[in-house]
Design brief:
Elements (H helix, E strand, L loop, with lengths): L4 E7 L3 E7 L3 E5 L4 H10 L3 E6 L5 H4 L2 H7 L4 E4 L10 E2 L5 E4 L2 E7 L8 E6 L4 E6 L2 E2 L2 E2 L7 H12 L6 E4 L4 H11 L4 H15 L7 E2 H7 L8 H9 L8 H13 L2
Parallel strand pairs: 3-4, 4-5, 5-6, 10-13
Antiparallel strand pairs: 1-2, 2-3, 7-8, 8-9, 9-10, 11-12, 13-14
Helix pairs in contact: 4-9, 5-6
This protein binds zinc ion.
Length: 259
Amino acid sequence: MAHCTISTISAFRDNYIWCIHDDSTAVIVDPGDATPVLRFLEDNNLDLEAALVTHHHPDHVGGIQTLGTNFPNLRVIGSPESRFGGIKEQVREGDSVIAGGNSFSVIDVPGHTLDHIAFVLSNEESTHLFCGDTLFSAGCGRLFEGTAKQMHDSLRKLQNLPAETQIYCAHEYTLSNLDFALSLMPNNKDLQDYHNQCTLKRENNESTIPTTLSQELKINPFLRESDPEIIDNLQTLNYKALSEAEDRFAAIRHAKDNA
Ligand SMILES: [Zn+2]
């Protein structure tokens, strides 16, 4: 594929399904619902080659069976640990998978679920990360199956990607995440500016996603567990002084869950 386009397909209340395509062939990430995907493919006259699955939750895999009926050769690519029974090609950290003419590398990112993986598409111009429910703009996924340490380690791996990496997460949670982020970093000027930009986008019914790693490093409390302003505010919230970064990460996650 000489070039590719990444299109947003909205699903349910606040899910994003990502479609990577050229003029003829598409790859879809986390199709929780088949209906909007089939409509998009038909409107754009696209054949569906593969579905990439980040984790087993129904709002990420619920459309795969119907898509497989419409596209009998559909490749369903995901983790060998997946509790979703429809994975046909298993991939794990270190693997690369070619789909739709693009090469995606795989990173294990347990935490939100134990089977969670992320896909990285790199080309000459840029790096694109499809991270499901691991890293959100100004937030991260809840810990349904994994530990805070696992999620912290997973986010560390994502932080090692190039700063200009475009981040395609699976939910529009940005504004509510920003409210929490502002409670921990009320004096962060980048955060205030980003909050204003995102508020305006949502008022105009625009997506705040993709975000970029460089932006998230400035404003996402889950990537800033050593920020002195956050450490101060955690103590105000009665989290005692925590010397280990991963313990501070766990405290931030706990505070968000109880916000
Ligand atoms: Zn999930």
